[in-house]
Amino acid sequence: MLTLANFRFRNVFDHLGGPVAKIETSDFVVEGRRTFQANAYIRSELLPSRAKPLLYGDADGTGTDDSPLVARHKAVSEAIERWAYYTCITSDRRSNHGFDVDPTSTGMAAFPGLFARQARASAYFEAVERHSVLAWWEGLIGGFARKTRWPGVTAWVIWDQPGEVSVILHKACEGGFHVYGRSAAPTFEAACEHAVIELARREYVSRTYWLARVGSFSSPPADMGILERRSLYFSSQEGHDCFQLRATLRPSSAPPKRRLVFDGPVAGPWSRYADVWRVLFEPPTQTFLSHDTQYFFL
Q1: Below-50 pLDDT ranges, the chain
Q2: Does the pTM exceed 0.70?
Q3: What's the confidence (pLDDT) of residue 209?
Q4: What single DSSP character describes residue 33?
């Protein structure tokens, strides 16, 4: 897909009037393969004040790739997506983009391309992944296990339709904790390639937090956000037992049809740098927004 990142990001930094305050780049290992990870930060005055995450850091965008330049471009794109998200979610026109139905960033993607619609592919498959995870966890669709090319990493296929495959990868890590990665793509192989990056990030975070700071899977801090609390819960053996129990269940009826809520561009001042698109399917229920730690929406 044609990218104009070098052109559209040429003035993206704050000293040139752009939204990005800084980018940090480092090495990152994904199942034995050296890659690069970049973290991008939006200027603070462009975003609302919010609690700082305790696990995953406060970067507004993260990108991983074999190329450090591409990793930086991905990080900037995700940061711009978050800029659009936080602006829209606090706007009186939030319902225009489906945020009255789902107030999360589900189904949003940014891409510095020639046409706005180039961002749609990533947005669409994220919407497929999120919807299938919710539907699977709530018992509306089934799944099956499948091997991957990475030793010790198993895929749980929760959606498998022509041109749409959604997976949850699982790995039991040395140290007694479990990590997961999720993604959807046109093929099983492509979905796994995307999901294993998330799995590797979660492995690094879990190992760093629990083994270096805590040393055991005790109760998370009270001021930790619900998504991070869920991440830690499902990293524990108790949480993985809960995950496995759900995996043994089968739906009692045919899966419900997905209802499209929104599919279109999200325009704003960020459009100078990248086009933002959102695709949103109506969630099965609103339970994923609850404070239930034992809900697999991480």
Answers
A1: none
A2: yes
A3: 74
A4: E
Instruction: Name beta bridge partners: 248.
Output: none
Interstrand relation of 61-65 and 33-42 (parallel, antiparallel or unpaired): antiparallel
Amino acid, res. 184: A
Tell me the β-bridge partners of 278: 108, 264
Cα distance between residue 213 and residue 22, in whole Å: 27
Residue-level length of the chain: 298
Is the CB of residue 134 less than 8 Å from the CB of residue 281?
A: no
Residue from 197, 149, 141, 202 nearest 166 by CA: 141
Dist CA 119 CA 275 (whole Å): 6
Contacts of 29 (CB under 8 A, 6+ apart): 35, 200
Distance CA 54, CA 189 (A): 32
Provide the sign of the torsion angle of the four alpha carbons 169, 174, 178, 181, taken in this order. Answer: negative
For residue 50, the model assigns a pLDDT of 80
Could you identify the residue written with the tokens 């993260």? 62
Q: In sequence order, what E strands does 129-229 have?
A: 144-147, 153-161, 164-173, 177-185
Structure tokens at 37: 């990870």
Residue 13: DSSP 8-state: B
Structure tokens of 36? 């690069």
CB of 230 within 8 A of CB of 206? no
Cβ(23)–Cβ(76) below 8 Å: yes
